[in-house]
Design brief:
The complex is a heterodimer.
Chain A lengths: L2 E5 L3 E2 L5 E8 L7 E7 L6 E7 L4 E3 L7 E6 L4 E6 L8 E8 L8 E4 L3 E5 L2
Parallel strand pairs in A: 2-11
Antiparallel strand pairs in A: 1-3, 3-8, 4-5, 4-9, 5-6, 7-8, 9-10, 9-11
Chain B lengths: L3 E4 L2 E4 L5 E7 L7 E6 L6 E5 L3 E2 L7 E6 L2 E6 L9 E6 L6 E2 L3 E5 L1
Parallel strand pairs in B: 2-11
Antiparallel strand pairs in B: 1-3, 3-8, 4-5, 4-9, 5-6, 7-8, 9-10, 9-11
The chains are: A mainly beta, B mainly beta.
Chain lengths: ~120, ~110
């Protein structure tokens, strides 16, 4: 079955760029929508945005000016960059796939999540 | 943005109890609603999509209903492994949004 694994630095300095990669195994990255979702400690879930394997993207307007997503089909990976980070960006970051190829917008499967802390 | 409001924010229940969680959308979303279960330190798990479709492998004690603005998640007979936080999520608009969560605790 398809599995997702996030990777990237666990500590990022304020004003710098957070960079994460999600590696997809057990299946092809093609023909699906892939999302990033985050969750500050003890709080709820926030959808950051998603990318299709063609490279088309939808971003959360509240983060749009700072977010860039990309996909590398040759490596079965997709990536998130979030610029000008502050302490408010400290969270567990999850990558997730749309349930089916129709892109309805429900998420399954998910990665295990990676904690990113913004601190000097 | 479509705001999703869950109630209650927490509920205390016993094993075997019937538990109902409500999710209300700030505008009509037809049946574009999903429910997730999240346990501490784990990623959310999809339970229900399209308001009432049970995800593969999810026990039949979970059910979802509703359309438009009002939705419910029902656990017909609470099991020990069901103590967790539950989130609704709308997929009616390009901006996907989640409810604030409902924590199901042991009574």
């Amino acid at each position: 079955q398809v599995q997702l694994q996030e990777s990237g630095p666990g500590l990022v300095k304020p004003s710098e760029t957070l960079s994460l990669t999600c590696t997809v195994s057990g299946g092809s990255i093609s023909s699906y929508y892939w999302s990033w979702i985050r969750q500050p400690a003890g709080k709820g879930l926030e959808w950051i945005g998603r990318i299709y394997t063609s490279g088309s993207t939808n971003y959360n307007p509240s983060l749009k000016s700072r977010v860039t997503m990309s996909v590398d089909t040759s490596k079965n990976q997709f990536s998130l960059k979030l610029s000008s980070v502050t302490a408010a960006d400290t969270a567990v970051y999850y990558c997730a796939r749309d349930l089916d190829e129709y892109g309805a917008g429900w998420f399954d499967p998910w990665g295990q999540g990676t904690l990113v802390t913004v601190s000097s | 943005d479509i705001q999703m409001t869950q109630s209650p924010s927490s509920v205390s229940a016993s094993v075997g109890d019937r538990v109902t969680i409500t999710c209300r959308a700030s505008q009509g979303i037809s049946s574009w609603l999903a429910w997730y279960q999240q346990k501490p330190g784990k990623a959310p798990k999809l339970l229900i999509y399209a308001a009432s479709s049970l995800q593969s492998g999810v026990p039949s004690r979970f059910s979802g209903s509703g359309s438009g603005t009002d939705f419910t998640l029902t656990i017909s007979s609470l099991q020990p492994e069901d103590f967790a936080t539950y989130y609704c999520q709308q997929a009616n608009s390009f901006l996907l949004t989640f409810g604030g969560g409902t924590k199901v605790e042991i009574k």
